[in-house]
């Protein structure tokens, strides 16, 4: 019997339907199983993950990719590595190692997914010393679970109940932890319903793995689009199978990572908070270890319940941490109570724990009451803080807070044992009993009544290596962030003589290069200015000597004789000054520069600086002399205009401080308030300030200011209005009439017309007025006044050249005081800069870079791994070899027979002999003094006291040690540079393991031999009188053989800062300014 067509079609449809049903059932079963157990995902993704590899190779990588803008990537510095690289490559660093990623990982990056690797939950800045020992470590987060098994079960299960209940399901070892399909489906459904009901609350569908991807790598840690969500899920899925198809270990790590890194807003005084451990400390003031210990306790107690509730609060608050942990704290407590009931109902916590926890309230820490750092926090970390500051500057990071969170390990040059030993030694010096035990009470040291807590000590030690100067120790006892060694500007007295001496010897070397090749006949024809003693001496020496080598000439130059007589007055810095020696016994001596350096005598160096300045002024024969001699010389006007402009700016600066920030009407009131009710003065001022105002406005002003306004009728006011019109008088004459400095009058008018004007505007637009005020100076009848001012400017120009030379030797400041007093410290210095100069001398005049940071290792163990190392240094010659060697001999003299001779037997070598030790001492007793017209002191106030010793030790080490007392408390101290010298001697046991670690070093060099018998000038003696303009240097007589250096006195005699004693001044031709005037040597810096 045959089936009809209809029956056959019906049967076929039934078969297809059965196949579809079975197929759908099978597919659904497979899909359900896949969604639950993920075997296919595990198979595919684990195989794919094996291709996602990276390795570190030497040199820069051409196959590296960096993340964009995720909070984690920014915080750890991964996203900023291209920027860091650009900065470091400009600062003598090179990429020594960098990661190479596989082609599959490059492809994944091209898809827009986050690079998969085993991410760090804890990272931060680590500084290592020269031996690899940890100097500083800032792990972030501070508190974390290092292993999954350390997490209390109640904490882990509570997290899973709230966020990801199926994550640790042991029945499916290959499960993809990135997706919980049921929660995801519910979230999608709820999101669709939200379109109809915008107020509907949509629960999150993210797993812990996806949340980690979001808050670590998505921009701002947010999911803004469906594409963001897919990127997070895909990245989490790939990352889950990096270690194979079995994800059970990975899933446990996800729980651990989440608890360690979940964002919990930013706590006041703490900063960003990540992780439960830091959250407990930052928000509740709870100890992480104590909380965990309580939560491991199986028996519920009130303490356990309190600890659990605070952990629960953080797990709830992570959804909206900025709200729940700040403004929404009451709601957080209510939510915690709701969750306690749910958790107990689900069997996560016992009912007893629930009941106890419901009785507790969440208590937040009082952030205003956080304890301040205790003890010597800054003292102990001074070197590491200095390195962190330098590191932040190198990387362009504005806050140490951000620097400390970088995934970065830095190799530094510090030697930790010595650093600690020096720091502990300085701490001991607060104790009077310990100071007495160390023998630090005595002449030139401490007195029994001194407040030892006032003294700040600083010590820096470098080692010269093939990699340049390596900072080994940087310590001080100032318990503040400020770094005395690198940040202070200190008048360190006679240490400035070292810079002066080097400048002098450099000039001698220049003269040697200029003249040594010439024949005697050629030398005889050279004309030099009679004021240029150095050129005259150089030519005379070269004509007489048989040995024209540079070394011989330099040693002969050290043999030139100078008087130490303090009676002569010196016109410098625009005024007449007198200087003193520390030891009055030196006042009657004439000595060579060997002895003056060895015993640190002031007056020879004042006269030496005068010779240097005059040489720089007159080194071009005739140029300066012609300007001074010829009243019609075209350069005179240029110099006088320059003087008028400079002097005028000083007055203008004083007046600007008076009127700065005032409104126009306030400027006018300030200008005329001190004027008497004099109609002529008021009219002169008003008509200058308001030249366009009509007679009615003028009359109203005059009547408001005049004491008897009714006595002035309209005719009188009209006459005053006409007589004092703007075209009637010059600025100078109007100022005379008003009894107001003309520049003050001009400045007030300018500020009233231009209320938004700044200082630069005044300087730029007021030059003509400044020169106009000094027209009296341009008159031929005032040639003597012109000469004195021209010479002052020539002196400033000479000091600009000296400053340029000092800067090439590492002088740290952008200006110096244009005065001979700079030779004995008035231009200040910085301990670190002095140490650098000693390093140049120790290295035969070649400056190598000084460094404390040698290697930066970013993102180790990641596909972003990049290591920067310093390039081999390129030395720069800044001093001729012969100059460095002669200076080095002079510095050894200072230790063996001079002001630092208490160190002469120090640093003995084990096999006998001693390390070569040389240096320069300096003492600054800095005071603010006010003088009467007759030169007597009206007021003397101590500003600070500084004593320093810059030294080299053997052929590798050099540094500086400083004692400093700021403020008026310095008045009770009388220590000199003998104190730092003695401190260095006491530090010998702490330093020896380091300085002798490299093996034997050369023994101390012998004293330099007497200078060869070569022509020298007559001693530079004091002038019989001190004229207002410096007298010319006499032409040198026939040279004599230089005398050998005399032995020093038995006890070290430190130097003292010169104290200017101005003579009675003549009445000034222009009003005297009320603030320091540079032309009188009162602190002007160009």
UniProtKB/TrEMBL annotation:
Q: Where is this region: Disordered?
A: 998-1086
Q: Provide this UniProt record's keywords sorted from A to Z.
A: Carboxypeptidase, Glycosyltransferase, Hydrolase, Membrane, Multifunctional enzyme, Protease, Transferase, Transmembrane, Transmembrane helix
* Superkingdom: Bacteria
The Glycosyl transferase family domain covers which part of the protein?
Answer: 144-292
A Pfam cross-reference name: Transgly
Reactions catalysed:
[GlcNAc-(1->4)-Mur2Ac(oyl-L-Ala-gamma-D-Glu-L-Lys-D-Ala-D-Ala)](n)-di-trans,octa-cis-undecaprenyl diphosphate + beta-D-GlcNAc-(1->4)-Mur2Ac(oyl-L-Ala-gamma-D-Glu-L-Lys-D-Ala-D-Ala)-di-trans,octa-cis-undecaprenyl diphosphate = [GlcNAc-(1->4)-Mur2Ac(oyl-L-Ala-gamma-D-Glu-L-Lys-D-Ala-D-Ala)](n+1)-di-trans,octa-cis-undecaprenyl diphosphate + di-trans,octa-cis-undecaprenyl diphosphate + H(+)
**Per its record, what are the GO molecular function terms?**
carboxypeptidase activity; peptidoglycan glycosyltransferase activity
Q: Where is the composition biased (Basic and acidic residues)?
A: 1054-1069
Q: Name one GO cellular component term.
A: outer membrane-bounded periplasmic space
**Which spans of this chain does the record mark as coiled coil?**
none
Q: Which SUPFAM superfamilies match?
A: beta-lactamase/transpeptidase-like (SSF56601), Lysozyme-like (SSF53955)
Pathway as given in its UniProt record: Cell wall biogenesis; peptidoglycan biosynthesis
EC assignment: 2.4.99.28
GO BP, one annotated term? peptidoglycan biosynthetic process
Classification via Gene3D superfamilies: Biosynthetic peptidoglycan transglycosylase-like, DD-peptidase/beta-lactamase superfamily
Regions crossing the membrane:
20-44
> Per its UniProt record, what InterPro entries does this chain match?
Beta-lactam/transpept-like (IPR012338), Glyco_trans_51 (IPR001264), Glycosyltr_51/Transpeptidase (IPR050396), Lysozyme-like_dom_sf (IPR023346), PBP_transglycosylase (IPR036950)
PANTHER family, from UniProt? BINDING PROTEIN TRANSPEPTIDASE, PUTATIVE-RELATED (PTHR32282), GLYCOSYL TRANSFERASE FAMILY 51 DOMAIN-CONTAINING PROTEIN (PTHR32282:SF24)
* Name the record gives this protein: peptidoglycan glycosyltransferase
Species this chain originates from: Sulfuritortus calidifontis
